Structures are given as structure tokens and as C-alpha cells.
Amino acid sequence: MDRSIVLSLALASLLVGVVSARDWNILNQLKGLGSSQNGIVSSGVSTNLKRYCESWRINVEVHNIRNFDVVPQECVSHVKKYMTSSQYEDDVERAADEVILHFGSMCCTKTKCDGMDAWLFDIDDTLLYHSLPREQWLLWRKAPAVPHMVKLYQDIRERGIKIFLVSSRKEYLRSATVDNLIQAGYYGWSNLILRYN
């Protein structure tokens, strides 16, 4: 049970959505700590911006940094580089494989499932990947599937586990969202819950 919670949280944290903005600046937030041309000075220890941004990204993934609204402006290019890299794809594949292995050893098998289990997926940047501008991807119904997530989704569905999908998308995007999910290979969910009317 504990391992399933940890794996679920790890997968969800790994796939945290990324948003960029111009106005928010991490250096402004750390203004009182001082800065240098080579990087950020924190508690007298200088780190270069690349290392700082990598550390920020990892801490978001493991949920040590919470309630952030945007990726720090200085880190947008670092996060984008990771999210479009083969390393990101490898990380997602590894997380999906670990969930499937866990199901094989701890949970119901494909032939034995009591129908009482459920799985919750956030759509945005978990099942479907999109880049800015977000509304355009949603209306075009062409947001691509996050690599390896269709395989995980289908494995969970084949086990008879009920799948619930959630999104902060607005209700008027329901039809586009459903079309996009089906085109990307996601179907057979129990319910799609959109947050805003």
C-alpha cells in the first residue's frame, strides 16, 4: 500500500505541468540574498544558474516546492530543454514501467481484478503534452500524448481498473478534449471531470 502511494505520488510529481511567464523572476524573490554575474548567491554559496534551475526543477518534481504559479523566468529555457529532451522521455518511461511492475507484483493482475480499484489521471502534461499557447492546442485537438503514457493508461484499463480523468480545462473545451484524448489513444475512461464551468 505504501509503495503504491509513493509510486503514484512520484509519477504525478514527475509530470508536473510547466508554465512560463515574463513578470515573475526568482532573482527578484531572492533580492535580499545578493547575486553575482555567474549565478545566485544563497547563504554565501554561489551556484551557477543552470545548477540552480536543475535543482528547482527536481524539487518541483518531488513536491518540495509547492504552490508556484510559474517557472522562474531564468529557468524557462532549462526546463524547456529538459521537457523536450530524451532524458524526459526516459524518465517518464521509467516511471510508467515502475507502476506496471508494481501492478504485476502487488495489485490485481489482468485476469483477477474485483472492479473496486480506480486510477486518477490529470490530463494536462500527464496524458497530453502541450506547449504554449495552451488554448490553441486545446482548440486544435492536437496535443500529443506524453511519451509512454498511452501504454501505462492501456495497461491500467486492461486490468479492469476504473479510470477517472481530471483537468482544470473549462467545460466549453469538453468536446475538443474528448476528441484529442481519443485521437491520442486514450479511451474507455469512467468519467472526465473538468474543474471550471
TrEMBL record:
<dbReference type="InterPro" id="IPR023214">
    <property type="entry name" value="HAD_sf"/>
</dbReference>
<dbReference type="Pfam" id="PF03767">
    <property type="entry name" value="Acid_phosphat_B"/>
</dbReference>
<dbReference type="InterPro" id="IPR005519">
    <property type="entry name" value="Acid_phosphat_B-like"/>
</dbReference>
<keyword id="KW-0732">Signal</keyword>
<feature type="signal peptide">
    <location>
        <begin position="1"/>
        <end position="21"/>
    </location>
</feature>
<protein>
    <recommendedName>
        <fullName>Acid phosphatase 1-like</fullName>
    </recommendedName>
</protein>
<dbReference type="InterPro" id="IPR036412">
    <property type="entry name" value="HAD-like_sf"/>
</dbReference>
